[in-house]
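Here is the promised in-class demo. Please do not try to memorize the tokens; focus on the logic of going from shape to residues.
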């Protein structure tokens, strides 16, 4: 009993920054929970940096960077995402507008809108909010955006340059993950990393940057040893790969896929997934791919959902827009 009391006392005396991530288990052992990688706070820090950079850019005679967000249809989630992007852009000093169209907009009409924006020298960045209505080919629409204005990084040219380790525009969510690893000083060199999910806009570009040589000219390489898992990876193998990983990045949209027993003690876990579920009380809540309440007791560092990678994605989109504007001025 005396030992248990001493351990409990030690837990309460931990300094405040540590105490919020500590707990005492049923046997009275003091354990330290994972460091929470606060994407919301980091995103605000980056946006504040961008605000200063953009104002300095304007002060030397440049016009403000400009962004156009195209949204087709009335999907509530999509409209919320676009609203947040426009708000962030304006906060950073980027001139931004939303172009809204009914779901009846044809593919031909959408391509004409994109063509006109490509030709507009006062527009630096164009993004198309996905998903698009079913009769519009998303790949065709994304490839219609001029590569230099493709701030989402979805154009085939930008994707190809990323895979070739060339300077390019990187998909914002993938870039958010890499930026978080760098800013939170998570060691990746020579470490084992598992990427769960192989989507062309998130999982694959994350894996590419993680495994790439840091010496390449784009400066995005992380020199990790990378394993990619996906829906056809047998469960026992998924668990095996995750248990051996120093870093787990999951982007599947499968709620609570990653359990505590799958995580090596001290590993870093970045959760890109987001799913809306209904609780036992009948309320809805957002959760990630990670069983957060349990994994936080095992991992060394973890991102929350919401408040992790999501806000950073928006911040990286703003960074992409400003960089597109800078490149545009150099070409003019």
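The designed amino acids, position by position:
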């Amino acid at each position: 009993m005396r030992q248990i009391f001493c351990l409990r006392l030690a837990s309460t005396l931990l300094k405040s920054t540590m105490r919020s991530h500590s707990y005492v288990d049923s046997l009275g052992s003091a354990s330290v929970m994972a460091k929470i990688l606060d994407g919301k706070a980091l995103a605000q820090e980056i946006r504040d940096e961008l605000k200063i950079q953009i104002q300095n850019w304007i002060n030397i005679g440049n016009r403000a960077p400009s962004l156009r967000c195209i949204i087709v249809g009335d999907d509530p989630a999509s409209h919320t995402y676009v609203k947040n992007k426009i708000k962030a852009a304006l906060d950073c000093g980027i001139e931004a507008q939303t172009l809204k169209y009914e779901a009846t907009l044809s593919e031909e009409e959408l391509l004409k809108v994109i063509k006109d924006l490509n030709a507009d020298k006062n527009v630096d960045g164009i993004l198309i909010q996905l998903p698009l209505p079913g009769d519009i080919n998303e790949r065709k629409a994304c490839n219609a955006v001029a590569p230099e204005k493709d701030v989402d990084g979805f154009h085939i040219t930008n994707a190809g340059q990323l895979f070739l380790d060339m300077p390019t525009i990187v998909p914002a969510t993938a870039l958010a993950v890499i930026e978080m690893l760098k800013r939170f000083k998570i060691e990746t060199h020579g470490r084992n990393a598992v990427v769960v999910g192989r989507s062309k806009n998130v999982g694959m570009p994350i894996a590419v940057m993680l495994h790439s040589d840091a010496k390449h000219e784009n400066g995005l390489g992380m020199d990790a040893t990378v394993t990619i898992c996906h829906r056809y990876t047998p469960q026992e193998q998924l668990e095996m790969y995750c248990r051996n990983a120093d870093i787990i990045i999951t982007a599947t949209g499968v709620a609570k896929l990653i359990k505590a027993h799958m995580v090596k003690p001290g590993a870093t876990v970045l959760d890109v997934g987001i799913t809306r579920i209904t609780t036992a009380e009948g309320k809805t809540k957002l959760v990630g791919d990670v069983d957060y309440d349990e994994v936080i007791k095992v991992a060394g560092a973890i991102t929350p959902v919401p408040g992790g990678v999501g806000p950073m994605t928006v911040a990286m989109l703003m960074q992409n827009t400003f960089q597109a504007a800078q490149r545009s001025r150099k070409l003019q």
